[in-house]
Amino acid sequence: MIDFGNFYQIIAKNQLAPWLETLPAQLATWQKHNIDNRYNQWLNIIEHLPMLKPNYLDFLHSVTANNQIPLSDGEQKRIRHLLMNLSPWRKGPFSLYGINVDAEWRSDWKWQRLIPFITNLEGRTVLDVGCNSGYHLWRMIGAGAKLAVGIDPMPLFLCQFEAIRKLLGNDQRAHFIPIGIEDMPKLAAFDTVFSMGVLYHRRSPLDHLYQLKDQLKNKGELILETLVIEGDEHQVLMPGERYAQMRNVYFIPSIQTMKIWLAKCGFHDIKVVDVSITSLEEQRKTDWMTSDSLSDFLDPHDRQKTIEGYPAPMRAVFIAKK
């Protein structure tokens, strides 16, 4: 069982302390509902990973850990085998003592696209909503964040994060909490809130924007990355059963519509800092994620369309203030 005691001790001394009124009971319930064979197998993998103390850490340019004395071939193979058993790895990459966890997504590319435009994270408390394996939490720490908190209810992603954290020397500057944003009280305590690749999975996008706003301090900054379509302020795509083979895609707005949604929810200083077509190099199959990926989701005769006939994935990064 994963112990959240260190996180409780950290937030008891800062502006997140009111969260302790609800969080321990929520996490106890979450643990109770996730007692199954797969979760126990994943916990067993974490247990068998060595607690390593890296001599070299780089979160600024990558998520990399190394030691002055390299691991033996046997140690490398053992760690790689254990991490492979936590597949599929969707977000990465991680470079750990000569082991390259080559995830489906080049999440470092997304980070490089947004980091030049956001408010400096030095000394800030940040929240990453839908954090997956927690890759971006480490990049936030590398950019100077004092505390990076990720939330995501998926037990596999929690176990991936805890496995990486153990190999990073049990670093306590980043934490993964397995709940959804709808389960959080209105803390109004984070300097920066990230929501990347989440909005289009929400049945009510405006409710999601209000939930993000509720976690921000006054004058805090939202960084939101989402799928968008071409069009004016009247354009929103509401896909049928699937979009790029994803079942749970509800609303994909135009850039102008997204700006209106943000303004309607009370955000200001709204900027679009990047618009990018998702490439087959950024999202692809690897040894660490062997099931279908973007190349299988696009029309083989027209890569500008999904196999359902919708516009191929295009993503925009929005920055706004509370």
TrEMBL record:
GO terms of biological process kind: methylation; tRNA wobble uridine modification
Binding site for carboxy-S-adenosyl-L-methionine: K91, W105, K110, G130, I181, E182, M196, Y200, R315
GO function terms (MF aspect): methyltransferase activity; transferase activity, transferring alkyl or aryl (other than methyl) groups
Catalysis performed (reactions): carboxy-S-adenosyl-L-methionine + 5-hydroxyuridine(34) in tRNA = 5-carboxymethoxyuridine(34) in tRNA + S-adenosyl-L-homocysteine + H(+)
Pfam families cross-referenced by the UniProt entry: Methyltransf_9
Top-level EC class: transferase
Top-level taxon of the source organism: Bacteria
Keywords, alphabetical: Methyltransferase, Transferase, tRNA processing
Chain segments annotated as coiled-coil in the UniProt record: none
Gene name tied to this protein: cmoB
Family: Belongs to the class I-like SAM-binding methyltransferase superfamily. CmoB family.
Protein name stated in the entry: tRNA U34 carboxymethyltransferase
UniProt xrefs under Gene3D superfamilies: Vaccinia Virus protein VP39
SUPFAM superfamilies: S-adenosyl-L-methionine-dependent methyltransferases
